[in-house]
Amino acid sequence: MFLLLVVKIPKVQNNLNPERVVGVDLGINVPLYAALNDNEYGGMSIGSREQFLNMRMRMQAQKRELQRNLLHTTNGGHGRNQKLQAFKRLQDKEKNWVHLQNHIFSKSIIEFALKNKAGVIQMERLTGFGRNKNDEVDEGYKFILRYWSYFELQTMIEYKANATGIEVRYIDPYHTSQTCSFCGHREKGQRISQSIFICKNPDCTKGKGKQEKDGTYKGINADWNAARNIALSKKVVDRKKK
Ligand SMILES: [Zn+2]
């Protein structure tokens, strides 16, 4: 006699803390930076700008070469078609590379959240992202916005988060990189370079980093600071601007 049992497999229980939030910064220096709302040290950078730039440059150069070849093919016909196809293949290769990187990056974000038992991931809404108060795109973001598919990356993070029971929220992107994540002070010029942030609030101790012997401050990692602001933000918005 056989007994047949139908077993319902429960959704993976990850024992996530609904109060712990991972903030994801889409950075200029590194493609991604993750930080936690309740941890003053922890964080993770994902991907490298150099690797990204190198790959991109190489592909651009190949494309230019092919284009030049195409211009010099005057007789048309078979040779031209072949070159057009090669060009198309190169474009596909480039797209696939960005796609693959987005898969790797989104996976890393989910792993970071699970490792820290974070129940929520917060990201910046892309409408208005990288723009200053005059609604112009900041210089540093121009390049990255042109070459990276952040929308795809966010979509991947979203569906992978859903599968593991992590909630995804979008927040207002304004001032996340110009505000001190320790004291909340916002002032122009605190992000003294693309990678370093120094809080200008005289009473703030943690937002300046280590003090040097000459009294100046080393500053804190600007991308980490932005990621932490994103994790701490209460300005939750719709993904698509209304
Ligand atoms: Zn501060």
DSSP strand tally: 8
Looking at the structure, what is the overall shape? flat
The ligands found in this model are:
zinc ion
Low-confidence stretches: none
Question: Your description of this structure?
Answer:
By secondary structure, the chain is α/β, with parallel strands linked by helices. It has one domain (17-237). It is 40% helix and 15% strand. It contains 5 helices and 8 strands; from the N terminus they run E-E-E-H-H-E-H-H-E-E-E-H-E. It has helices spanning 49-72, 78-115, 139-147, 150-164, 222-232; strands spanning 17-26, 32-36, 43-46, 118-124, 167-171, 196-197, 220-221, 236-237. The strands form 2 sheets. Strands 3-2-1-4-5-8 form a 6-stranded mixed beta sheet. Strand 1 (17-26) and strand 2 (32-36) form a beta hairpin. Helix 1 (49-72) packs antiparallel against helix 2. The mean pLDDT is 85. It binds zinc ion. Zinc ion binds next to loops.
Quick summary:
With 242 residues, this protein is α/β, with parallel strands linked by helices.
Topology readout:
Layout: E1 17-26, E2 32-36, E3 43-46, H1 49-72, H2 78-115, E4 118-124, H3 139-147, H4 150-164, E5 167-171, E6 196-197, E7 220-221, H5 222-232, E8 236-237
Parallel strand pairs: 1-4, 4-5
Antiparallel strand pairs: 1-2, 2-3, 5-8, 6-7
Helix pairs in contact: 1-2, 2-4
The protein binds zinc ion.
